[in-house]
Automatic annotation (TrEMBL):
PANTHER family: TESTICULAR SOLUBLE ADENYLYL CYCLASE (PTHR16305), TRANSCRIPTIONAL ACTIVATOR DOMAIN (PTHR16305:SF35). GO terms for biological process: regulation of DNA-templated transcription. Residues 235-259 are annotated as: Disordered. It comes from the Bacteria. This is Helix-turn-helix transcriptional regulator. GO terms for molecular function: adenylate cyclase activity; ATP binding; DNA binding. Residues 863-928 form the HTH luxR-type domain. Residues 235-250 have a biased composition (Low complexity). One of its GO terms (cellular component) is cytoplasm. It comes from Catellatospora citrea.
Length: 933
């Protein structure tokens, strides 16, 4: 790869890296992701950067495969030299990092807060000297560390920080296996990439000539070049593999050996050099390969425990295989993997045992337990217990995936078959929570090989049904959950009722908009009522099941008191991000309880992020996005949708189709709405997911009402109110009334209003009664209509539903214009136009503009992008600064570094022609900042 300090064939790559260094030296943040196969030269490019960055403060870390399940292990390794700056961070961020690194006993850290704390810490370190962080083998970083570093990378703007990630590509992507989660693939998506390919023919020939052990037979040279395909490490290592006679005579005969991958050949080249070392040096290399931290003190203690001489590493250093300094570092990651993979199992166990004995059981019990497990060949209960304790600690630090890994290994090492089944079942549960359904199914299979009792077998059946629902929300989920509930009923009544609730929700999801299926909501509701419950139970799951069962057997008004009590109980305590929590959020929507809806979901999403419980997080984020759509904060809704999409891809669950489609419809985006509708129908139809089909009709009704296509809106709304899906019926009834009123179908509108009023009167919230008043006004005339329009505006003004407040102003303004009260109409139409345009509801905003034109008002056509010269982020930062927030406080709220906040504020000052924060308070910012929050 190199000749002296030069890199063969890497001029273009070096120019990119030089530009990155220049950006950082000039005080700007920069990121690049080096992507390439094993041996292509990513590490050499990192070496080049490190050498060129002598004026920068440089830190370097490498991911290690054996650490991939230990939450925040790699981040702690990178940040260890920076922890003297920890006290400079805002207290919540400081506590988050201390909790993530296990420096003290704290509540599980919020993962987003850890990411922000990482960004702030890097910013603090870079304050007096530009900073460069180099991360090799990103694909082997533990997931929590990868998320935190990628979070920071996406927010580098005005900080002199460079982040360079090297990630190994294989034939099918970022990682070599076909696991559910491919480290790096999701976290690094969208960051600037530099694909490092093979060398061109001329450079490959030059590099080969520089390392060949003498003249090469032409056939040998061509064979090496063909096999290496420009891979520099292959070119460096392959020539040394054959014997000199083979090199002279043709290298190897085609077909005389089974094909060997380039990586295997490269590793074999390293192994030849290892094989030439003394046994004690080889043993030391194996210990170093099994120890991912690169801690020389730990390596020395382990070597002493094996009675290895103090200078055992010297021959390996002389051979260029390893460097032992302040860190233990292999010449290339493939050296480590070659040493470790080639060792006999007994040798690996010996190395791990030495490391376990050299690791302090008090300061690092989890790594000690992991090494001890790797050293154990036969089941051993004491080791399994240590792993079980490590799983508990991992989960408390936000490592649900780590907890699953610890529990899986604990199960494998459990001698008692019954106890093994219990641990495997617990591991399956943790894997399901972590968003790894395939791993959870494998662990369930392991559990079911053990002599489980009836309750454990029923729990297995329940978890398998849950996984089906989480992953696909298909039509088979209700039946599977119902069977599990019925099996649990005589064994654990409380768990059975929870499972009946899950079956009921699954039935609502799959049966909406379709004829009553064999396992529909009424069948599940009837079955659920056969399970006894403790009299006076105040458990959220019990109340929800009773309320929903009542709704589907007796009617909505009869269910409201019980459902409202369920919300109160859920709001008073932590239910966890389970189907119970999501059912509560659905009920909050159904009852038009906007405050309870937001508070419940925000809390549970925060806890899910903290604990790494990801299986239900995409659905919760989808519901949160739905809230913000109704509240008129389309920017927040889009942000939650983006996060949900990222998580969907990471954990391989079927993405919820709801809020992205609703957002496009509310925005009046016909093309996106049509595309998402086609995708939703194509995706949901094979699974029989009726709720998705119903919500496409609701979205169509919203879109067409915004565009003024009232006949189409009416038809879509009528299709949407079939079935027993929650929420869509209530929301769609308001769309149906408006479409019917505008389309001259008063009879249809009055029927819908009757159904709507039954629900709104039972609810009694400002949102509900405002919706009823607006709908009733649309079907009224004269003074009663005006009173109802004013009532709707007043009620919406006392809740958070700004999108509905804006539409109330719109329909009132339209009515006033038709009443020939132009001046009064202009007031409300201007208000509607400003609000709708600011939030991005383009079609409804255009409706308001057209009405204003009809009053004789000259109105400039605007969009959300032209309301202000400020970007949405600049407007939000300006708004917070105007309210007296400091840069640190704004950064904490918006997940930006304080320096980046200051950079944005300077742009705001320039655009607004002001000089200071004081000027922000005096500037006429209302029209610029309305809707920013």
């Amino acid at each position: 790869m190199t000749a002296g300090r030069a890199l063969y064939g890497r001029r273009a790559e070096c120019e990119v890296l030089d530009r990155l260094l220049s950006e950082v030296k000039q005080g700007r943040g920069a990121t690049v992701v080096l992507c390439g196969e094993s041996g292509v030269g990513k590490t050499a490019l990192l070496d080049y950067l490190a050498e060129k960055a002598s004026a920068l403060r440089t830190y370097r870390v490498s991911g290690v495969e054996s650490e991939i399940e230990l939450a925040y292990a790699s981040l702690q390794q990178l940040c260890a030299p920076m922890l003297d700056r920890l006290d400079r961070l805002p207290e919540p961020q400081r506590d988050a990092l201390r909790g993530a690194f296990g420096l003290d006993e704290r509540a599980p850290p919020d993962r987003l807060l850890v990411g922000l704390a990482t960004l702030t810490l890097l910013s603090e370190v870079a304050a007096d000297r530009p900073l460069l962080c180099l991360v090799d083998d990103f694909q082997w970083l533990d997931r929590a560390s990868a998320q935190a570093l990628a979070f920071a990378a996406r927010r580098l703007v005005a900080d002199p920080i460079g982040l360079v990630f090297a990630v190994r590509l294989h034939d099918d992507g970022y990682q070599q296996n076909d696991s559910e989660y491919r480290p790096g693939e999701i976290e690094l998506a969208g960051l600037p990439e530099l694909v490092v390919g093979g060398l061109g023919d001329r450079d490959a020939r030059s590099l080969l000539a520089s390392v060949a052990p003498g003249p090469l037979d032409e056939r040998v040279r061509d064979r090496i070049l063909a096999e290496a395909r420009g891979n520099p490490l292959a070119l460096l290592e392959l020539p040394g593999e054959p014997t000199p006679p083979e090199l002279a005579g043709g290298y190897d005969l085609p077909g005389s050996r089974p094909p060997i991958s380039r990586t295997s050949r490269i590793e074999r080249g390293y192994l030849r050099r290892v094989d030439g070392l003394a046994p004690q040096t080889r043993q030391l290399l194996l210990v170093a390969a099994a120890e991912p931290l690169g801690d020389p003190a730990l390596l020395r203690r382990a070597a002493s425990g094996l009675a290895l001489p103090a200078d055992a590493a010297a021959p390996a250093e002389a051979a260029g295989l390893i460097t032992v300094g302040t860190r233990v570092r292999f010449a290339h990651p493939l050296v480590r993997s070659a040493v470790y993979r080639s060792a006999a199992p007994a040798q690996r166990r010996q190395a791990h045992l030495a490391l376990a004995e050299a690791t302090d059981r008090l300061t690092d019990p989890d790594r000690r337990a992991w090494h001890l497990a790797a050293a154990t060949a036969v089941p051993e209960e004491s080791v399994a217990q240590d792993l079980e304790h490590s799983a508990q600690r991992a989960k408390s630090r936000g490592g649900a995936a780590a907890a699953a890994a610890f529990l899986q290994r604990a199960a494998e090492l459990t001698p008692d078959l019954r106890r093994r089944g219990e641990r495997a079942l617990a591991a399956a549960q943790a894997a399901g929570e972590a968003g790894a359904p395939a791993a959870a199914n494998d662990l369930l299979a392991m559990a079911q090989l053990s002599p489980l009792d009836r309750l454990q077998q029923a729990r297995c059946e329940r978890l398998r049904a849950q996984l089906v629902f989480y992953r696909s929300r298909g039509s088979d989920a209700p039946d599977l959950l119902l069977q599990a509930a019925q099996r649990l009923a005589p064994l654990d009544a409380a768990m059975a009722r929870e499972t009946y609730l899950e079956a009921l929700l699954a039935a609502m999801c799959t049966g909406a908009g379709q004829p009553e299926p064999e396992v529909g909501v009424r069948a599940v509701a009837a079955a659920a009522r056969t399970v006894p419950v403790e009299p006076g139970s105040q458990q959220a799951a019990d109340l929800l099941l009773d309320g929903l069962s009542t709704q589907f057997t007796q009617g909505f008004p009869q269910a409201v008191p019980t459902l409202r009590r369920a919300l109160e109980v859920a709001g008073a305590g932590h239910t966890g991000l389970t189907l119970v929590c999501l059912a509560c959020s659905l009920v909050a929507m159904e009852l038009w309880e906007d405050t309870a809806w937001l508070n419940l979901l925000e809390r549970e999403v925060r806890v899910a992020r903290q604990t790494g419980t990801l299986s239900m997080l995409p659905v919760a984020l989808d519901y949160l996005a739905s809230y913000h759509i109704q509240a008129g904060d389309f920017t927040a809704a889009a942000a939650f949708n983006d996060e949900s999409v990222t998580l969907d891809a990471a954990i391989r669950v079927s993405p919820p189709p709801y809020s992205p489609l609703m957002l496009a419809a509310w925005r009046g985006d016909q093309q996106t709405t049509a595309q998402l509708t086609r995708f939703g129908i194509q995706d949901a139809s094979p699974r029989g997911e009726g709720s998705a089909l119903v919500l496409t009709e609701y979205a169509a009704a919203v879109l067409d009402n915004g565009l003024g296509h009232y006949s189409s809106a009416l038809a879509a709304a009528e299709r949407a109110i079939t079935g027993d899906v929650l929420v869509a019926r209530s929301w769609t009834l308001t769309e149906l009334v408006e479409a019917a009123a505008r389309d001259g179908r008063r009879d249809v509108g009055e029927q819908a209003l009757e159904q709507l009023a039954e629900r709104t009167q039972a609810s009694g919230t400002q949102w509900a009664l405002g919706s009823e008043a607006r709908s009733r006004a649309l079907l009224s005339e004269g003074p009663p209509a005006e009173d109802l329009y004013r009532e709707a505006i007043d009620r919406f003004g006392h809740c958070r539903m700004n999108a509905h407040l804006a539409r109330a102003h719109l329909v009132y303004g339209e009515w006033l214009r038709r009443e020939n009260r132009r001046q009064d109409a202009r007031e409300h139409l201007h208000r509607a136009h400003d609000m709708l345009t600011a939030m991005g509801a383009a079609a409804f905003g255009e409706r308001a503009r057209n009405e204003l034109l009809a009053t004789g008002e000259a109105v400039r056509k605007r969009s959300a992008d032209t309301v202000s010269d400020l970007t949405p982020q600049e407007a939000l930062i300006a708004s917070l600064a105007r309210d007296g927030r400091t840069n640190h406080e704004i950064g904490a709220e918006l997940f930006l570094s304080p320096r980046t906040v200051e950079w944005h504020l300077r742009k705001v000052f320039t655009k607004l022609a002001i000089n200071s924060r004081r000027d922000l308070r005096e500037a006429a910012l209302d029209t610029k900042l309305n809707g920013a929050r």
